Amino acid sequence: MMDKAIFNGLGRRKTSVARVYIVSGNGKLTINDKIFASAEEYFKDRVRARHAFEPLVVTNNDGKLDVFVRVEGGGLSGQAGAVRLALARALIKMDTSFKPVLKSHGMLSRDPRMVERKKYGLRKARRAPQYSKR
Fold first, then answer.
1. Cβ proximity of 81 and 89 under 8 Å
2. Domain contains 88
3. Total domain count for the chain?
4. Distance of CA 39 to the CA centre of its chain
5. What pLDDT, on a 0 to 100 scale, did the predictor assign at position 1?
6. For residue 134, is it within any domain?
7. CATH classification of the domain holding 34
8. What is the per-residue pLDDT for 122?
9. Are the C-beta atoms of residues 4 and 24 closer than 8 Å to each other?
10. Could you tell me if residue 124 is inside a domain?
11. Across residues 38-42, what is the average pLDDT?
12. What pTM was estimated for this model as a whole?
């Protein structure tokens, strides 16, 4: 049996869903069963990687926890947002004293913005066909 406590969190953003499991450790990062030295390798961008793992930085747990991430759906930006929310929720399960800090940084709110559906008679969700006067 495992002797370390595992804390989990679920996060969603656009069409992405992320499940994060954190265990006390030395900062090992595993995303979709692949071990990465840094989040930038997966997200291919420093900004998205920093955004996704910001909860660890804000709570001073960067490098102190092993993070296991399962993320699917959407693109890299949506996945980064999903990981961020899931990680924040997992940190709160680990230690409830992190809640005010994470809440003040806006990391506990699920971003409700979704892609608007295309309507019939239009070219896109709101883009109408070009109007011809004559």
1. no
2. yes
3. 1
4. 12
5. 40
6. no
7. 3.30.230.10
8. 96
9. yes
10. no
11. 91
12. 0.91
CA distances (Å), 112 to each of 12, 74, 75, 109, 127, in order? 9, 15, 16, 9, 22
Assess if residue 35 is contained within a domain.
yes
Contact 18, 83 (CB under 8 A): yes
Contact 52, 83 (CB under 8 A): yes
- Listed in sequence order, the residues at least 6 apart from 12 whose beta carbon sits closer than 8 Å to its beta carbon are 18, 82, 85, 110
- Beta strand pairing status for 16-24 and 7-13? antiparallel
**Using one digit for the tens of pLDDT, what is the confidence trace for 82-99?**
999 999 999 999 999 999
* Domain boundaries, position 13: 7-104
- Give the position of tokens 């793992």: 53
Angle at 11 between CA 56 and CA 69, to 5 degrees: 60
Q: What is the 3-state secondary structure (H, E, C) of the chain?
A: CCCCCCEEEEEEECCEEEEEEEEECCCCEEECCEEECCHHHHHCCHHHHHHHCHHHHHCCCCCCEEEEEEEECCCHHHHHHHHHHHHHHHHHHHCHHHHHHHHHCCCCCCCCCCCCCCCCCCCCCCCCCCCCCC
Instruction: Please answer whether residues 7 and 94 qualify as being in contact, where contact means their C-beta atoms are separated by less than 8 angstroms.
Output: yes
